[in-house]
From TrEMBL:
Keyword Hydrolase: yes
Lineage: superkingdom: Bacteria
UniProt GO molecular function: DNA binding; endonuclease activity
Protein's name in the database: Uma2 family endonuclease
Gene3D superfamilies recorded: tt1808, chain A
Keywords: Endonuclease, Hydrolase, Nuclease
InterPro entries per record: Cro/C1-type_HTH, Lambda_DNA-bd_dom_sf, Nuclease_put_TT1808, Restrct_endonuc-II-like, Uma2
Organism: Mordavella massiliensis
HTH cro/C1-type domain span: 6-61
SUPFAM superfamilies cross-referenced by the UniProt entry: lambda repressor-like DNA-binding domains, Restriction endonuclease-like
């Protein structure tokens, strides 16, 4: 695409520069300079990143029984969300549709291991809280503009669990970060979870081997741990501790292959 075509596409989709930066992974200043015509010879990688956002829309959007991907970002609702085929993973946040890339093996192993520890803790204690693992829809704000899909959640009020989704804010959320979701998880969803009433939010960064903990309930955040730490689950007053040295042992072979 030419820069002019990208500019026209931006106007057609109604994207802001900030939304394009978020979706493309490019710095906001870079997006503004390229699409504003200030940078006359942008890097090839920059053009590719912009084309991924401003190019032709994915086939699942075009093939819907009712064409709906003609709205501006920020105007989509759950009606649009439910028209997307089940095998395509997206999230709806404040009326904006975000594609979700397929999770990596490390992502799935880490999330699954922690979920299993949490479930076993509940079973051992005969607790009422219910750990759940993706894919599970969370209608976070109980409105028709947001539906997220965290990697691991704990819900202690079972009245919030209905057949189609979790209706309302979970008590605890984990997001395992990836390159494509890191900005969304650490900025947009962080603020959404805080404002919705989530009590505790963990972001696990497999690349940097870090765990970032936001204990909203006690206003102690962020706390940053390495993959050699034992991290207490705050909503359970530290009765359960996740040993990330053990977590790492389960994915070490993937890291060693990359060395």
């Amino acid at each position: 695409m030419t820069i002019q075509e990208m500019q026209e596409r931006k106007r057609e989709l109604g994207y802001t520069y900030a939304q394009i930066a978020e979706l493309s992974g490019l710095p906001l200043g870079t997006v503004q300079k390229v699409l504003g015509g200030i940078t006359l010879t942008p890097r090839y990688e920059t053009i590719l990143a912009l084309e991924r956002v401003l190019g032709e829309q994915p086939s699942y959007m075009r093939e819907s029984a009712v064409p709906y991907f003609v709205k501006k970002q920020g105007e989509y609702t759950l009606e649009d969300y439910y028209k997307i085929p089940d095998d395509i993973r997206v999230e709806l946040i404040d009326g904006v549709i975000y594609d979700m890339s397929s999770p990596t093996s490390a992502h799935q192993i880490i999330g699954g291991y922690i979920y299993s520890k949490m479930l076993q803790h509940v079973l051992d204690k005969k607790g009422t809280c219910l750990p759940m693992i993706a894919p599970i829809d969370v209608q976070l704000d109980c409105d028709d503009k947001t539906m997220v899909e965290p990697d691991v959640v704990i819900v202690c009020d079972r009245d919030k669990i209905i057949n189609r989704c979790i209706y309302g804010a979970p008590d605890f959320i984990i997001e395992v970060l990836s390159k494509s979701t890191k900005k969304k998880d650490s900025v947009i969803k962080l603020n959404k979870y805080l404002n919705a009433g989530v009590r505790e939010y963990w972001m696990i960064d497999p690349m940097k081997k870090k765990v970032i903990v936001y204990d909203f309930e006690h206003e102690e955040y962020p706390l940053i741990y390495g993959f050699d730490a034992k991290v207490p689950v705050g909503i359970w007053d530290g009765e359960l501790v996740i040993d990330f040295a053990e977590v790492y042992e389960h994915v070490r072979f993937l890291y060693e292959r990359e060395e």
